[in-house]
Each structure stands twice: as C-alpha cells, then as structure tokens.
C-alpha cells in the first residue's frame, strides 16, 4: 500500500479512493439525516432514515447497520449489555445531543463513521467536539511513532482525563477505540446477523485468527492482545468522550503503511470530513 500512495502530490491509489468515496458517502448520509431530524423523531426512525438513504444510493451490504443514540445515550449511560447499543424508541427533544453511526459497504469497500450533533444549541457537546481535535492529532502522531496500540489507547485516555472527560469507547465490546477494515466480497445476497454484515464479520474473524498466529490483533483495545504497533492497513478509529450524560465522537479511517517515511507511515484518509472542516473554521475564527 505504501508504494502506490502518493500523498505529497495529493494522489491516492485506486483502492484508497474507493474507501474514501464510501466514507464520504456515509458522512453525506449523516449530514443529510441530521438536517432532517425534528422533535419527536425516535432513534429507530433515525436509523431507518440512514439505512433508506444509503440503500437508495446502491448500498446493499454493511459492516454494521446504522445506529442512532439520543440524549444521555450518546454517553452510553448505564450501558451494560450489547443489546443496549441498538436503536430504541427514545425521542429527540430540542437541545438534545445525538450521534449517528453507520458502516456501509459499497462496491466492495467498507467504511465506519460516527457523526455527532444536537437538535439546536448544546454547548456541552460543542465543547466535546472541539476538544476531540486534540485526540485526532495525538492518535496520528503516536501511530507514526510506531507506539503500540495499547499505549496509544492509554495516552488517549489520559488526555481525556486531563480534559475532564470520561472515556466512553470503553463501553464498546472489548473496550475498542478502533478496528481494522478491509475489502468485502460483493455478493447478490448480503445477510446480517445481530446487526452486522456476515461477510464483514467473516473477514474480521479471519483477521483475528491470522493476527493471533502472527502476534497482532485487528481490535485496538486496552488489553494485552493489542500490545503491538499498528498493523499496516485501514483502521476505523473512534475516540468517544463523555461528560455528565452528553457524548460526542468522530469515526474515520486511519491508513497505516510500512513506509519508513513518518508522514507516509500513517495518515488520515480524508481531510475533508465534517469534523475536520469544523475545526478549521474554529481555528480561522
């Protein structure tokens, strides 16, 4: 991957362009659905809006089906079991924060994104989103330094603590902040199981077995099995902050290569995403 990625001239390999396009498609879906949310819309309705929008544009397979979380569920308040992640009949109210999360597969390329917003003003979530830019910078810097996934995870958590926030990605299965993504074989019939695409799960399971034999994991966690540098490939990274019942996160693809050039060894796939544009506007202001 490193050899055919020419970032200094603004060029990407055809494969990386495919991943970037599906990631942009997912973020376009999130922005469109967010603009259509109104008081009284439920999480289930918001998840269906995402699913319908993407299906109208050719998506037939998923890493996972769309999620939506409203209010204190954006901070995973009292989440104890995986079923609590699935959309509920919680209704959106004025000023309430929300997170839209989707992972479509399109033309064999996968993406997994998270979009945070609120129905009207929410100063707490605005602050969380502004502070997330420091996490994006830290993750990139330390991935380029070839620090272990576990160490980067711990340093992200320390930064959250210094900022006065709680680490809410600890509530995810295995406490992951990221997971590896790959190409997915296109099939006429793409079933899901427990909200996850079976083809994508099969690929992730294959990475788990392959990585176990070679001493690496496709799951970026605080545990010993993640005590190794980032494996070359694509990682969907999602630092998730929480503060008193309000949560915020982004999720996007980090590309890791085997290049000895630090700038080429790790980079964010796209610098034109909503949260990145937001931070650029804040810096200008």
Automatic annotation (TrEMBL):
CDD domains: APP_MetAP (cd01066). InterPro entries: Creatinase/aminopeptidase-like (IPR036005), Pept_M24 (IPR000994), Peptidase_M24B (IPR050659). PANTHER family: AMINOPEPTIDASE (PTHR46112), XAA-PRO AMINOPEPTIDASE P-RELATED (PTHR46112:SF2). It holds the Pfam family Peptidase_M24. Coiled coil: none annotated. Signal peptide: none annotated. Residues 19-258 form the Peptidase M24 domain. It comes from Streptomyces goshikiensis. This is M24 family metallopeptidase. It comes from the Bacteria.
């Amino acid at each position: 991957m490193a050899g055919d990625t020419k970032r200094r001239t603004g060029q990407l390999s055809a494969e990386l362009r495919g991943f970037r396009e599906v990631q942009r498609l997912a973020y376009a879906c999130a922005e469109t659905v967010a603009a259509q949310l109104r008081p009284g819309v439920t999480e289930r309705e918001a998840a269906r809006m995402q699913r319908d929008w993407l299906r109208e544009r050719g998506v037939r397979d998923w890493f996972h089906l769309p999620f939506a979380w409203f209010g204190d569920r954006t901070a995973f308040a009292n989440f104890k079991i995986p079923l609590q992640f699935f959309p509920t009949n919680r209704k959106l109210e004025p000023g309430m924060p929300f997170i839209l999360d989707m992972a479509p597969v399109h033309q064999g390329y996968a993406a997994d994104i998270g979009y945070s917003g609120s129905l009207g003003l929410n100063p707490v979530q605005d602050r969380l989103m502004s502070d997330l830019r420091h996490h994006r910078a830290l993750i990139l810097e330390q991935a380029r330094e070839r620090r272990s996934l576990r160490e980067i995870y711990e340093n992200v958590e320390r930064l959250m603590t210094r900022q006065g926030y709680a680490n809410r990605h600890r509530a995810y299965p295995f406490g992951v902040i990221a997971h590896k993504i790959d190409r997915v074989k296109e099939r006429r019939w793409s079933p899901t199981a427990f909200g996850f695409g079976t083809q994508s799960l099969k690929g992730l399971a294959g990475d788990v077995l392959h990585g176990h034999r070679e001493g690496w994991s496709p799951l970026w966690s605080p545990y010993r099995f993640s005590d190794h540098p980032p494996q070359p490939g694509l990682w969907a990274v999602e630092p998730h902050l929480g503060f008193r019942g309000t949560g915020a996160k982004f999720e996007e693809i980090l590309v890791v290569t085997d290049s000895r050039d630090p700038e080429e060894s790790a980079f964010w796939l796209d610098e034109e995403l909503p949260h990145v544009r937001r931070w650029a506007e804040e810096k200008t202001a």
